Amino acid sequence: MGAVGAYAQDATPSAEISPEDFCMMRRAEYDPQTGACAASASIEVHVDYPTEVLAWPQVRAAVDALSQRSLADFVQAVADNMAVDLPYFAPMQYELRYSALEWRGWRTLLFTLYTFTGGAHGMTTSHSVVYGADSGAILALEDLFTPETDILALLQPPVREALEAQIGEMALPDFIEPGIGSLDSFRTFTLSSEGVTFVFDPYAVAPYAAGTQQVLVPWSALAPALAAPFATGGGSGQPGRRARPPARRVALSAVVQRAPHLLWRDRQFAQMHPDRIVDGR
User: What is the pTM of this model?
Assistant: First the structure.
């Protein structure tokens, strides 16, 4: 059987290494019958879906967009990594879970997404959808405030102060300032009787080791700039009122224990045995 030579990432262009040895170095399996070197990986997918949103088209569209976009990104990342740096002994993971909070007619779905696609550690990100529990109207950050409010200028000082206090020694301006530098930084939030809580992902405002950061800004700190419904203590989402659907969730899980991926096929073998090559590879 011919040597792989320059095809092996761990060999120099002049090196000679057998296909079997190359596969072993990549923790993959070599099939002498087809000349194929294939790696396998375990992939785990778990999704918690709030079935209550099925009654509200806008809310359902927002939740579906989040789940579909994040899952597509996960699949692409797994595919990219399988081509260069797999298999991993740890399974690839996608977990989308949520918690639900309700305050004065506003319901917050706070989604936590954990993915592992290789590397030193996985990544956790947070996303929120806030909507009227009796209307299905989605609440944007801007809806909390009067039109003339400079929202960024209002939020930055209390959030900066809170982050510096709770992060401590890992509070670095090079993280915090870019992390609160635009309104998009404040899009993940929840509502409660105490105020508005903003959620920042690892790396967003601090090193990964600091973890996810949550900052509560009390209603009292926002009072002068709050839009009418919130300045008077909240109220139901607008427009309209409908019967509230029951709050239920469905958990979808899938585990692919072995997902074979062709790393390469010995070229000399393919030339010698074209009748034994399948799928054009």
Answer: 0.75
